[in-house]
Amino acid sequence: xxxTEGSGAVGAPMERIEGRAKVTGxxxxxxxxxxxxxxxxxxxxxxxxxGRVRSVDVSAAQGLTGVxxxxxxxxVAGTVGAEDREFAVLQDGEVFFRGQIVAAxxxxxxxxxxxxxxxxxxxxxxxxxxxxxxxxxxELYRPEEVNTGAEADTARGDADAVLxxxxxxxxxxYRTPREYNNPMEPHCSIAVWETDPERLVLYDSTQGxxxxxxxxxxxxGLDAERIRVISPHVGGGFGSKGSPHAHxxxxxxxxxxxxxxxxxxALTRRQMFSLVGYRPNTIQRIRIGxxxxxxxxxxxxxxxxxxxxxxxxxxxxxVCSRMMYTARARRTTHRLAALDVPIPFWMRAPGEAPGxxxxxxxxxxxxxxxxxxxxxxxxxxxxxxxxxxxLPWSGRHLARCLRQGAERFGWDTRPELPRGHRxxxxxxGTGVASAVYPRLTLPGSExxxxxxxxxxxxxxxxxxxxxxxxxTALTQIAADALGCGPDRVRLRIGDSRLPTASVAGGSSGISxxxxxxxxxxxxxxxxxxxxPAPGARSRAETPxxxxxxxxxxxxxxxxxxxxxxxxxxxxxxxxxxxxVFSAGRIINPRTARSQLTGGMVMGLSMALHEEGxxxxxxxxxxxxxxxxxxxxxxxxxxxxxxxWLDEVxxxxxxxxxAGVGEIGIVGTAAAIANxxxxxxxxxxxxxxxxxDRFLG
Length: 696
Ligand code: MOS
Hints:
- It is built from 15 helices and 26 strands.
- The N and C termini lie far apart (58 Å).
- The structure holds dioxothiomolybdenum(VI) ion (MOS).
């Protein structure tokens, strides 16, 4: 725990310290950093899903006034490491998906660059392609591991035998579509390349300045010390900014072609649909064998997912079924199809979001099959220890979340049977689902504390605030750990010159960076005592936590939804959702609530709207913009409430706190789909819940 001398900053609903700068427009986002006469690069994207570039004609583009350079493979091949296909931008003519960068134009204005890009003529040799799941011709394969580094397959006991012996059996297949992160701020960069000595400065919209620096150093073959990445404010990422992508390499190539000049790149919405990752579509078969009293004997979760031939990505959709519920026999598998499609990547709660849609819908189906209340079913299958590792839980409070949520939501007034409540033209129902997310701490962060002349402390760590509240929460943590007021802390984040920080991913920021700040504060007090002199300085890393080997660490939650489905049109409305979460100590209730309700709104959007529709003939997403790919807007969202248990996890880290960035999305879509079934008696197993699914 933090020292008892804490200032009480942790736990207070402190307003965002950068809030005023943001709403008055003075907080600079990546594209907004000011340079005299910047240049602008605009990529040309492949129009075929598979093949190779035969030739590129840039003469018309170069004829346009204001065009400063064109970039094609013959111009820049051999200048960057080509092992990782995502970063091998313009290194050869191979085309792995439609929407891949095949050329670019640099010009005086973004408008000229964009117009010139349309004048570039690319001639392709076209190969056959395959973009649909399951693939008609390609073999599925088992990845070496899934996204978290976990095994692709696990098995315990004879699941098939237990299934065969079970009184109640569920065997259902669920599908989730491609979903796109769509942060409000698009992916943007400004690159400046200096020669003699060679140096790169990159202003980037990223979840991790040090990840970008490390990756670009490898790709460019440049010493990391020669690269500086700056990113003080980020307008959302949801995982897609957790790694650099091809556009980062492109803007650097453009800057290197025009040394000394600042080159700006802002991807368009459409370009983001092929260049910055997305949640791959999944097909998930779930089999559960249970007794009539609801006790589960066997649980099998088989996942088939899209990956890209250009670069593997294995969403860990089945891992939630390894630990959520008790079962003496269990099997989980992941199989990938390497398709000619853009490279999938992290999107808010990768794995848990699609996986828990499938598992929690299956649990609802099992509840009806057993004639049990869905909350009671879950309570009857609570494991005393983590079924996967056999370890005790650092704090498993799912049952409390379910009970507290049921009470707050008014669960017990619901009609028992589906299609039991009609209000005018609307069928009305309620649904519930569980949520889960691991309590992760990443290694490799370091914080530095310096006492200034005015008595304030400068606290430095290269962390990221992607809209989550890092600026504020780390300030509160530092204040408590130093025993001073938050106004005596000057936080510095978002610059690779600051001490190294891990990526803002896996909801690990508060735990990883916060622990480093606490450790640095302890080191500071140990080294400098009660009366430190100005200039006193200490550094410390995120400590290793031996309790990681002794406890299974997870956050849990319950999600409740009320749904109305129009009897004539099938339109689905969600007037009310409630989430009750267990996430350890809450550092800042204001920013945490915003994270949790934001995740729930994204889950609602996943339930009702989001689907990248692929045209199998050409391999592209036909609705690749915000007009066609609808993200929940104000009119779609009713009352969204998030609560949390009063809880401290004594094992997870010195703060007793877990992150809240991702768990909010987990379970929301299942709760809504389960409520839609309760309203209508129509079970929808394929997201999203579009009106047509409830008609006919
Ligand atoms: Mo989060 S999707 O792990 O950046």
